[in-house]
Amino acid sequence: MQTDVKSAVATATGVMYAGRTRLKGVTLTTAGVAGSMVFRDGAGGTVMLTVNTPAVSSLDDMFIPGDGILFSVGIHVTISNVASVSIFYG
Predict the structure, then answer these.
(1) With contact defined as beta carbons under 8 Å apart, do 24 and 66 qualify?
(2) What is residue 37's three-state secondary structure?
(3) 86 and 29 Cβ atoms separated by less than 8 Å
(4) What domains lie within the chain, and their CATH numbers?
(5) Coil, strand or helix: which one is 4?
(6) In this predicted model, what pLDDT tens digit does every residue of 9-55 receive, in sequence order?
(7) What are phi and psi of 46, to 5 degrees?
């Protein structure tokens, strides 16, 4: 099923989208120290994706294959030492 792709940006831990959707891609800006992003199905929900970042400043893209990762409740991200994260969902 084809849907419109939307985007959201976060610079701190929180809900990026509330509601059922599929995560299609991620763009992140690292903070120059090792860090991580943990995507959960809603706040406190199941961990759907963990991304560890290197101890360098960089801009990285990540594309999710197939139809993306299904989040039934919504996309929540916990950010540690990551300057910003943009997601593409739909």
Answers:
(1) no
(2) strand
(3) no
(4) 6-89 (2.60.120)
(5) coil
(6) 999 999 999 999 999 999 999 988 999 999 999 999 999 999 999 89
(7) -65, 135
Angle, alpha carbons 77-54-86 (nearest 5°): 35
- C-alpha to C-alpha distance for 41 and 49, rounded to whole angstroms: 9
H or E element in which residue 84 lies: strand 82-89
DSSP letters along 48-79, please?
Answer: EEEEEE-SS--EEEEE--TT-EEESSEEEEEE
Amino acid sitting at position 80: S
Nearest-angstrom CA–CA distance, 22 and 29: 21
Is the model's pLDDT at 89 over the cut of 80?
yes
Provide the token pair at 45: 């929900």
Tokens of 56: 């360098």
